[in-house]
Write a structure and sequence with these properties.
The chain is an alpha+beta fold. The chain starts with a helix and ends in a 19-residue tail after the last strand. The relative contact order is 0.18.
Length: 133
């Protein structure tokens, strides 16, 4: 058996495939990454989108996770870098309630991010002021 045997041959073949891919523009920079969303802040709710298709129009649906609260909608145009940041204000869009954000692009991109309710203590009701002397 030759020195290195099948392991060396496999490594050589892998190297040739990688070099060929890079030569055609399909190297690491050519890998298409999936669109993603991240919650950057809750005050106000700030959503960052990454790896969306440039020029795409993205519709965002933000659903508070508390029963009875209605979703809030927003739209964002994706610049050439493929990233965007959008700030959304509305009742129930906080860390305590939790949210689900869905982004759907006009060119087929789609991403979802969830945040679970943080279990914040209830807000006490306002205190009535006493008018007695």
């Amino acid at each position: 058996m030759k020195e290195g045997g099948p392991l060396r041959a496999a490594a050589g073949l892998l190297l040739l495939l990688a070099l060929g891919s890079c030569a055609r523009g399909g190297g690491v920079a050519g890998i298409a990454l999936r669109p993603s969303l991240a919650i950057a802040s809750y005050f106000p709710l700030t959503i960052e989108g990454h790896h969306f298709r440039p020029g795409e129009n993205v519709a965002l649906r933000v659903q508070p996770r508390q029963a009875g609260l209605k979703p809030i909608y927003a739209r964002e145009h994706v610049p050439p870098a493929g990233t965007f940041t959008v700030r959304i204000r509305g009742y129930g869009l906080d860390r305590c309630t939790g949210v689900t954000v869905t982004a759907t692009g006009s060119k087929g991109s789609r991403a979802v991010v969830h945040s679970s309710p943080a279990g914040c203590p209830p807000v006490p009701p306002p205190q009535a002021h006493s008018t007695s002397p």
